[in-house]
Amino acid sequence: MSAGRKLIVALAMIGVAAVPAAAQDYGPYGYGTGFDWDGFYAGVYGGGVPTGSGSWSAGIFSGVNIAVDSAVFGVEAQLGGDFGTSTSMDALIMGKGGLSLGEALVYGTAGTGFVQGSFGYAFGAGAEYAFTNSMSARGEALGVGAWGGGPSDMRLAVGLAFHL
Q: Among 8-17, 25-34, 147-156, whose mean pLDDT is lowest?
């Protein structure tokens, strides 16, 4: 199965997992009580590429979110390294849009920057869960590739974020 198809399957699985929570009725003004996703955050991530090279990655991220009722929009910067048969650096600027489900956030993301040492793009989806008033854990699936071509890799990562 190609990296593009595996990415689509991973994104579909994240979407299916979020459907039961999205079906709950919390009233006309969003979810009321729950985590405040509004503001600055920073954290660390680690993961890998389950297809092809089997490399792994680790890095840092920082961003800001704006919450409007239960809709959450934001911008995030990621800086990391890919380690496997060769080593390369990644630097991405990603836009985010998602839905707050109280302590959970389900989002889609897309952006551009340097991927595996050359100018490229990334797109995908993720879910985040706040387990304290200032910390959350997240999982993310990203398809990455060089501009002008299809996705060359699918990356799966988990992370820990600290919210200000």
A: 25-34
**Domain annotation for the chain: domains and CATH numbers:** 3-19+39-163 (2.40.160.20)
- Give bridge partners of residue 46 from the DSSP assignment: 58, 158
Residues 6 or more apart whose Cβ sits within 8 Å of residue 45:
57, 58, 59, 60, 61, 78, 80, 138, 140, 157, 158, 159, 160
Check whether 6 has a pLDDT greater than 60: yes
The distance from CA 73 to its chain's CA centroid, rounded to whole angstroms, is 13
CB 119 within 8 A of CB 111: no
Query: Contact 65/43 with Cβ under 8 angstroms?
Result: no
Cα Rg of the chain (Å, integer): 16
Percentages helix, strand, coil for the chain, rounded to the nearest 5? Answer: 10, 60, 25
User: Of 28, 40, 77, 79, nearest to 57 (Cα)?
Assistant: 79
- Distance between CA atoms of residues 101 and 32, nearest Å: 10
Counting residues of the chain whose pLDDT is more than 90, the rounded percentage is 52
pLDDT mean over 14-40:
61
